[in-house]
Amino acid sequence: MTAALFIHLNLFIMTLEKLSEKLYLNLCEQMEETGSIENPLEKLKTGLTHVQQALAKLKIELTKTGFKDQADEISFFKKGKPRIYALLIFITERYAIENSMPLVEKQQKITYLKSQLVFIDRFFRQNEFLYQYFKLGATDLDDRYFVRNAGASIVGFTEVPEVDPTFSTVADYLFSKFMAYEKLQKYLIDEIDAIGATDIDMLKTKRGSMEWTGEGVNIVELIYGLYETGQINHGKASLAELMDYFGQTLNINLTKYFKRFSDIKARKSMSKTRFLDEMTLKVNKRIEDSDAWIPDDQKRRYGY
Predict the structure, then answer these.
(1) Eight-class DSSP state of 235
(2) Helix and strand tally (H, E) in the chain?
(3) Which of 13, 21, 54, 124 sits between 20 and 30 A of 206, alpha carbons compared?
């Protein structure tokens, strides 16, 4: 093989990566342009057409060129294709949210949008193993998740649509969804801010929407812990100020906190701080569960 031919082939192989970048940037510009379309259904159709055309071009180019090596394949299915496919998911989900938006008072609209944020958060939690892998930029399982026909499977995730095995891997759709849902989170938060963030009454409602629903003695135990360790105002906040603040913020009467603290002292169990001990156990368990998959090099890098 001549040097000129070798260089030509290398440039040809690299076209897929360059095309992926170019198509993504073009799609971002096209999405801004479609934002001016007033008809929601027309906006959806236009956006989907743009993304589907981009994916079709990627697939054709992949068929023609293939990958230089496994690293290129992993990069394409972990980043290149998912960020484009994520736009398709985002456009579809945004249309569904906008189409179901209550045409009523601002508070009801905000409540509806917040419920969508809860749904997204639940999705991330349901797929916490892979989501943490995504967020940390881990790489140790890439050859199982982002190489075609690698034989790996994702336990507990059944939402993957029927795919072309020549143009998909076991995890590229899930990574697309992570990207799309993070983008959707920002969209929802911006919408909530646009609807009510400048309204004083709305801000008051938002601030007062949280309330303590556990046992009263538990929050007293928690506040004593914050007070004794000096966590608020550099330790200068008095116990009475803390009780008043948390009582108003979480809508619970803490005027008899001395009596509740006496109940804590009178406990006959081995440990008096039952609630704080339970919190410690729960947090440690969450740390252990989320650490179960993290490789040693990632733990050192991120201080786990």
Answers:
(1) G
(2) 14, 0
(3) 124
Say what the pLDDT of residue 233 is.
87
pTM of the prediction? 0.60
pLDDT tens track for 79-118: 999 999 999 999 999 999 999 988 878 888 999 999 999 9
Q: How far apart are CA 195 and CA 36, in angstroms?
A: 19
Q: How far is CA 131 from the centre of its chain?
A: 8
Among candidates 299, 291, 275, 155, which has minimal Cα distance to 226? Answer: 275
Separation CA 222–CA 261 (nearest Å)? 11
CA–CA dist 9, 22 (Å, integer): 20
Question: Helix or strand or coil: residue 245?
Answer: helix
Q: In a 10 Å sphere around its CB, with 0-12 CB exposed, 13-18 middle and 19+ buried, how is residue 154 labelled?
A: middle
Kindly report the number of other CB atoms within 10 A of residue 165's CB atom.
8
Task: Evaluate whether 102 touches 197 at the Cβ level (below 8 Å).
Answer: no
Task: Convert the pLDDT of each residue in 222-276 to its tens digit.
Answer: 999 999 899 998 888 888 788 888 888 888 888 777 788 888 888 877 688 888 8
Give the number of C-alpha atoms closer than 13 A to the C-alpha of residue 176, restricted to the C-beta side: 25
Mean pLDDT taken over the chain: 81
CA distance 153 to 163: 14
Task: Report which of 213, 203, 294 is spatially closest to residue 251, judged by C-alpha positions.
Answer: 213
Show Cβ contacts of residue 23 under 8 Å, excluding neighbours closer than 6 positions.
54, 57, 58, 84
- Contact call for residues 88 and 48 (beta carbons, < 8 A): yes
